[in-house]
TrEMBL record:
Segments forming domain SHS2: 18-214
Descriptive protein name: Cell division protein FtsA
Stored CDD domains: ASKHA_NBD_PilM-like
Organism whose genome encodes this protein: Desulfofundulus kuznetsovii (strain DSM 6115 / VKM B-1805 / 17) (Desulfotomaculum kuznetsovii)
Secretion signal span: none
Pfam families from the UniProt entry: FtsA
Entry-linked InterPro entries: ATPase_NBD, FtsA/MreB, SHS2_FtsA
Biological process annotations from GO: cell division
Sample GO molecular function, one term: RNA binding
PANTHER family: CELL DIVISION PROTEIN FTSA-RELATED (PTHR32432), ETHANOLAMINE UTILIZATION PROTEIN EUTJ (PTHR32432:SF3)
Entries under SMART domains matching the protein: FtsA
Length: 724
């Protein structure tokens, strides 16, 4: 980075100096001055160029990159001065500028009017302008922040007056021209300052600062225009009748010329920037193009190549001046800023405004003798050093009136007092991370349990807690000078977690019904087909099965105290369907069995099912008219390998907890069958359970008939169950 320094530093201290920064598109200029009799005496200054294009059109794009240049300026100034710099005056470019005029009147106390009363009047006018702007549809949905204002006129008892201080009257009033920029522009400036441990002393608009230095108040009776031509933007201010009457901006400036050189000479941007600056000398310019060829071009030839870009820039600036000045050219135009130094630009502006070329002039540091005193040689003498001096002057003249102090989580912040602040405004301007205000609910856990989709919801987040002066508040709570804001960040909810033990609580059993009688059966858990320990967590999107430890036929043999061979003499159904020997029982399954040839009124089919160990596709023996034929029974959709009978079925209609339920597909039904038709898992019911059939207490094995009325009481449910 390049650094430039003035002569020997004056005797200065943190208490008697003003530090100003002009954060531009191409450079950052820092100035430290000592106030003396309404003027500033230069103590130290530095100019540092950005290493890369961290800003475009006056807008910060790369916050770390801009902070790097600001840090370099601050460090070098502190090294020369011998003390740290903490507070700084800054200005914002007029990108996306919005202006509002406002008139306000207030009654006085009848006492002599002092400056605090005048300042309160001005701030009330700014706040009214902000409210009027907020009531309009925001451009692009943006929130605008006031960055500066100008007093057009004061009024005492309805009559115009140049100053209110010291007078007495019944009412005071003011016409104020307030300027607003998108909150994102201001927030990015504040973020840069925070990264280099600086706090804002003053905030203004760049054309306000430039006109403060370049056009003294006694000149403002004339209709004049000031144009601050930087690298990315050209900011405009208009004066008339002793006041600043309008502000404007065009998003074109010196970079337009640089980019034209890039295209016409085939060089990189930095080389083009150097060539543009050398135009001032009027000599031949040597350069190396992008293919490595060394070239020489005369000043006249280069000016001829960039003439179209100069014409566009002059035309854009002149058009904006006319728009802000009611369609008429001003009496004279003052140009400041490094981008205005290209030879021929002021003459072109004069031609477009139909002014004599001597009426459009370039102002530099030599014209600032009334406001800025320099001992020795000025190392930044050109027009690029005018705006930073104006920023310091604005801070001097409004010192202590523009900012309020608010504590946020124990840290003091200085905020430009140009609006009615809420907690939300303050947190946005102080760089508080908005993500800390919104907690996230824990992640849900989704898996399949015994063929049914289960969702275990994550924990709910705890919202952020906001206190203002130790009282509960919210983002809309208004705050004022001296208030203390404490924000307790939101707490995220815990992710849903379920273990095998949660699904299979001690003593790890399930209940099955053997010929209608409940039997406690040892159970285990399978996750994606693998046995899982009780401590294992259920992973997302897995398949969980809670089932008997032993396969169905082994369990039945143990229950009947019979061998597997002896079971060949038995007919067996699971949930009225044939199950393969490898099937593992689930909670609530019904196992009906009988010796072959024995009648049972609950047996749902007239077909005798022969089930042999290891047989996956049982067949039906028809004892009716089609004796001797075999038929493969339709496969049951829920039990692997299971079959069901389609003969001798009937349908009945019952009422369950007030809702009508149709039972179909079987020859007879018992109470527990109802759970196949409603969204309630009987395994999830825990004592006490209320079961009634037609108003009387019922059991799971009671037979059902058409028109029955059933009531089932609710109880605690297992994790993930979805009862009514």
């Amino acid at each position: 980075m390049n650094g430039k320094v003035c002569g020997m530093a004056l005797k200065a201290s943190p208490e008697n100096t003003i530090f100003a920064l002009d954060i531009g598109t191409r450079t950052v200029i820092g100035l430290v001055a000592v106030p003396e009799d309404g003027r500033l005496r230069l103590a130290a200054q530095r100019l540092v160029e950005h290493r890369r294009r961290t800003m475009l059109d006056g807008q910060i794009h790369d916050i770390p990159g801009v902070a790097e240049a600001v840090r370099a300026v601050k460090k070098e100034l502190e090294g020369e001065l011998g003390f740290p710099l903490r507070y700084v005056a800054i200005a914002a470019a007029g990108r996306s500028l919005v202006t509002r005029s406002c008139h306000i009147e207030q009654e006085t106390s009848g006492q002599e009017i002092d400056w605090p009363e005048v300042n309160a009047l001005e701030l009330a006018a700014i706040q009214q302008a902000h409210r009027e702007l907020a009531a309009e549809p925001p451009p692009n949905g943006q929130d605008f922040t006031c960055v500066g204002y100008s007093i057009v006129s004061y009024y005492l008892d309805g009559y115009p007056i140049s100053s209110l201080v010291g007078h007495r009257g019944k009412t005071i009033g003011a016409d104020v021209l307030a300027t607003f920029l998108p909150g994102s522009v201001v927030n990015s400036l504040y973020t840069v300052l925070q990264r280099v441990e600086l706090e804002p002393l003053s905030l203004t608009l760049e054309p306000i600062a430039a006109i403060e230095a370049a056009i003294p108040e006694n000149y403002r009776l004339l209709n004049l225009a000031l144009v601050d031509i930087g690298a990315g933007t050209s900011d405009i201010a208009i004066t008339r009748d002793g006041a600043i009457t309008a502000y404007g901006m065009v998003p074109v400036a010196g970079d337009e010329i640089t980019e034209e050189i890039v295209q016409t000479c085939l060089v990189d941007f930095d080389t083009a920037e150097r060539m543009k600056r050398e135009l001032i000398r009027g000599e031949d310019i040597r350069y190396t193009d992008i293919v490595g060829m060394e070239n020489t071009i005369s000043c006249q030839d280069l000016l001829a190549r960039i003439d179209p870009a100069l014409e566009r820039l002059a035309r854009e600036i002149s058009t904006q001046i006319l728009a802000q000045n009611g369609g008429r050219p001003p009496r004279s135009v003052f140009c400041v800023g490094g981008g205005g130094q290209v030879p021929g630009l002021t003459e072109k502006i004069a031609r477009h405004l139909e002014l004599d070329k001597n009426r459009v002039v370039l102002r530099d540091r030599r014209s600032l003798g009334q406001v800025l005193m320099v001992d020795g040689d000025d190392q930044i003498p050109g027009p690029e050093g005018v705006t930073v001096a104006g920023i310091a002057l604005v801070a001097l003249r409004k010192l202590g009136h523009d900012f309020i102090h608010i504590m946020v989580n124990g840290v003091e912040h200085r905020l430009f007092n140009a609006r009615e602040f809420t907690v939300g405004n303050v947190l946005a301007l102080t760089g508080f991370n908005p993500r800390l205000l919104i907690g996230q609910n824990g992640k849900n856990l989704t898996f399949t349990l015994n063929g049914k989709r289960q969702v275990i919801f994550g924990g709910l987040s705890q919202p952020a807690r906001i206190l203002v002066n130790d009282r509960e508040a919210n983002m809309q709570t208004r705050v004022a000078h001296g208030d203390r804001i404490v924000v307790h960040p939101a707490v995220n909810g815990a992710d849903a977690r379920v273990t095998v033990a949660d699904l299979l609580p001690p003593p790890a059993t399930i209940t099955v019904y053997a010929n209608g009688r409940p039997v406690e059966t040892a159970a285990c858990c399978y996750i994606n087909g693998q046995v899982a320990e009780p401590s294992r967590e259920i992973p997302p999107e897995c398949n969980v099965e809670i089932c008997s430890v032993k396969p169905f036929f082994e369990w039945l043999a143990e229950h009947l105290a019979a061998s597997l061979e002896e079971l060949e003499a038995w007919e067996v159904l699971v949930n009225d369907q044939v199950a393969p020997p490898t099937y593992r029982l689930h909670d609530g399954d019904r196992v009906d069995y009988r010796p072959k040839g024995k009648e049972n009124r609950r047996w749902p089919v007239d077909k005798l099912i022969t089930v042999k160990p290891g047989q996956n596709a049982p067949v039906a023996e028809d004892r009716g008219e089609n004796q001797g034929t075999q038929e493969i029974l339709p496969r049951h959709p829920e039990i692997p390998g299971g079959n069901f009978s389609s003969e001798l079925t009937q349908s009945i209609t019952v009422t369950v907890n007030g809702s009508t339920v149709n039972l179909t597909g079987r020859s007879s039904y018992i109470f527990i069958d109802i759970f196949n038709y409603i969204d309630l898992d009987p395994s999830g019911l825990k004592p006490p359970i209320r079961l009634t059939l037609n108003g009387k207490e019922a059991s799971f094995t009671d037979e059902l008939h058409d028109g029955d009325i059933i009531e089932i009481g609710a109880s605690n449910r297992k994790p993930g169950s979805h009862g009514p």
